[in-house]
Amino acid sequence: MVTRSVKRDWVLTEDGFNRLLEALDSDRNTAADRYEHLRRSLVRYFDWRGSINSERDTDETIDRIARKLSDGQTIEEIHSYALGVARYVHLESLRRQQTEQALLDRPLIDDAKPDNHLDRRVECFETCLGKLPGDKRELILAYYEGDKQTKIVNRQKLAEKSGLPIGRLRIQAHRIREKLEECIEQCLSSGTAGDD
Amino acid sequence: MNSEVYSDETLKKYLLGEISDEERYQIEQRYVADKDFLDQLLAVEDDLVDEYVQGELDATEREQFEQKLLVTPKQRRKVRQAQILLEAIPAHGRPAPHENIARRRSSTVSWMGWFGPRWLPAFAGALALLILLVGTAWLFIRRQHSKELQTKSSSMNSNSDASSQTQFEPTPVPDQSAKIVIALNDAGTQVTLNDAGDISGLGELSPADSKSVKDALKTQQLRVPPVAEGLKQEQGTLMGSSGDGTPFGLVEPLGTVVRSDRPTFRWQALAGAASYIVKVYDSNFKEVATSGRQTNQTWRAVSPLPRGAIYSWQVTAYQDDEEIRSPTRPAPEARFQLLSSAQAKQLDNAQRTHGDSHLLLGVLYAEAGLLPDAQNEFRLLLKSNPGSPVVQGLLRAVSK
Q: Do A110 and B383 touch (CB under 8 A)?
């Protein structure tokens, strides 16, 4: 099977990356955080646009921004600029997806492992839950406790108990869930539910 | 950076693609720059996925969800993850079976305590009477049942084994002596077909779905509807821009069956064009939908189009004072067909009950004429069954 890859004539250099960090913030640590966020948000942007390879499209977007900076050009509004580049990358990617006709020459678009039996999923869930710090484990369990109506009441009580506005609690639950899902995915892919 | 407060409802609409271009851009600008806002949006996505998994979305939202958030492998994985969480979290707090027994025991003890010793003789007498009554009734029922069994088995084929009381089971059990001829990894388990024609591993299937899967496995042929085959042949010509009636390429839908009754149209940009208008026509060339001026190269029909019909579409690009249309003669029409209501319902059901079976979904998509979806499912099935000639045959059948 032939796997097609995106042809790139420029790759991210150390200089390009440093310039990108500088453009994000003069403080190196803050810039690193901002870079992480930019990357994460672009991945989501491509996911929500239906990209089959959001990581690749994000890398391409970041490369192009860094290249512009590396060429000595300035970018006033880096986030708006990034979004503009992302839009072009997405259109190109979409066009490529649609025109790749020869089915067997195309890369498989799902890198998911075959579905696992429910028992294994539950095993992985338990293992990953066990790896969470105690307070996070309790929060996520309490957050998803109960059926539809009870859940709403439970969450309000939980927010009161934790001294958080409900919106903040939801964001916290999301961040824990994201970690948990990441861990379960790795566990299912590795084929072992044991502690590693 | 804008600091507008967006309601969950607006963010949900953003995720489902039901929002104006301008508002979408505002939201995107905001989350690219604002970490908390991105997390808020992701939390809304979590809720939306949970609602989908728990069947809490209405029909329109469900369809929008499937169109927007169930397209890529990554999105499907997210839904599977939600299924795991929503199944495992409530189960996590439940007591283990031995704890239940202990609890039952302790409640029996307290119940006896409430009666107290002075009630014990009367209680023992009542209990003995109850046992006697239940015992008599049980013997009577058993005798009647035994008579029924004898009558039934005597009317059956003399070859039938007397011990095979499974014949009275509501669910047929595959013949254990039959030889397995095909085994595939699918839906997290092994799906098998034996030489008696029994299929197992897919749980409850409707007779029609069961027959479709069996036939597909046996013959590696799929009942692709003839219209879909006809549409498919025109697909390639319209995608690239050229001087043969396609000044700019159309992307989708082209020569395919479309599942949503509000299709999304995509086309390539024409250099210098300021805006575009999409027009959709029925088979009598009557205009059935129009986009109005668009600056993007994508538009989703605002109102549902009647299902089951064949449509064509054309895009007009506005470049200065010039109107440039694509496609025009001699290029073929850009046509597509909407999936019928019955098939849409059948697929919805299959996705709900067997959403993780690439085999079943692939077969049903092929029979509905949704060839790219069928190809995708069979490619995934091939990944779980590398080198399987059966799956390769199925893949070939939808890739002709």
A: yes
Q: Which two tokens stand for residue B320?
A: 């200065």
The predicted-structure confidence for A144-174, as pLDDT tens digits, reads as follows 887 777 788 888 888 998 888 888 899 999 9
- What lies within 8 Å, CB to CB, of B64 at 6+ separation is B16, B17, B18
| DSSP state string for A124-191 | HHHHHHHHS-HHHHHHHHHHT-SSHHHHHHHHHHHHHHHT--HHHHHHHHHHHHHHHHHHHHHHHHHT
ipTM of the complex: 0.82
Put simply, the answer to whether A50 touches B71 (Cβ < 8 Å) is yes
CATH class name, domain B235-332 = mainly beta
Q: Is the pTM of this model over 0.90?
A: no
- Class at the top of the CATH hierarchy for domain A118-190: mainly alpha
For residue B44, the tally of other CB atoms under 10 A from its CB is 21
CA distance B284 to chain A (A): 29
From chain B, pick out residues whose CB is under 8 angstroms from the CB of A104.
Answer: 395, 399
Mean pLDDT for B211-239 is 75
**Chain A residues whose beta carbon lies within 8 Å of the beta carbon of residue B1:** 79
Which chain B residue has the Cα nearest residue A101? Answer: B236
Å between B389 CA and nearest CA of chain A:
14
| Token pair 């995608």 in the structure block, residue | B239
Considering only the beta carbons, identify the residue of A54, A103, A114 that sits closest to B185: A114
CA angle B176, B180, B184 (to 5 degrees): 125
Sort A34 into a burial class: Cβ within 10 Å, 0-12 / 13-18 / 19+. Answer: buried
C-alpha dihedral, A63 to A66 to A67 to A73, nearest 10°: 150
CB–CB contact B77 A109 (8 Å): no
- Is B269 in contact with B298 (CB distance < 8 Å)? no
B38 and A114: CB-CB below 8 Å? no
Determine what percent of chain B falls in helix, strand and coil, rounding each to the nearest 5.
50, 15, 35
State the average pLDDT for chain B: 76
Give the DSSP letter of residue A104: G
B20 Rama class: left (phi>0) / alpha (psi -120 to 50) / beta: beta
User: Is B375–A104 a contact, with Cβ atoms under 8 angstroms apart?
Assistant: no
- Rounded CA-CA distance B321/B316 in Å is 12
Q: Where are the domains of chain A?
A: 14-105, 118-190
Give the mutation candidate from B65, B92, B239, B398 for the A interface (greatest A CB count, under 10 A).
B92
| Minimal C-alpha gap between A190 and chain B (Å) | 15
Residue B39 neighbours by CB under 8 Å, 6+ apart: A171, A174, A175
Cα–Cα distance between B241 and A182 in angstroms, integer?
42
Q: Verify whether the Cβ–Cβ distance A174 to B74 is below 8 Å.
A: no
